[in-house]
């Protein structure tokens, strides 16, 4: 499937920029994940598209699981692990290995849901 602005979440657009012009090299925390989820409208994007491309910018040092957990909580709960992995494609421009924190986030989301339900 072709990716365009309607079905692409480019995390570059959500990097924190300092007053001195520096750009954050980490995505961390639930609050930041929630901010990006709301600002990017990822839940609505998932509703309207067959596939979603998530672009992880170059020179990222870290993305922690709590960021991913809050960013993807609704779509993972809706789709489940397998369908989420089928629908969401990740492209790490700087070759940052996002798999471990992403998998941990998915596990946490599904574990919480199971514990509650």
From TrEMBL:
The name this protein carries in UniProt is: DUF4325 domain-containing protein
């Amino acid at each position: 499937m072709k990716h365009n602005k309607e079905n692409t979440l480019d995390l570059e657009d959500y990097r924190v920029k300092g007053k001195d012009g520096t750009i954050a090299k980490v995505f961390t925390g639930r609050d930041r994940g929630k901010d990006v989820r709301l600002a990017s409208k990822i839940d609505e994007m998932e509703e309207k598209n067959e596939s979603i491309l998530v672009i992880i910018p170059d020179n990222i040092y870290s993305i922690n699981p709590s960021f991913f957990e809050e960013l993807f909580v609704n779509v993972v709960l809706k789709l489940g692990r397998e369908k989420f992995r089928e629908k969401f494609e990740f492209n790490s421009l700087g070759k940052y290995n996002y798999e471990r924190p992403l998998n941990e986030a998915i596990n946490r989301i599904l574990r919480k849901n199971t514990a509650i339900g």
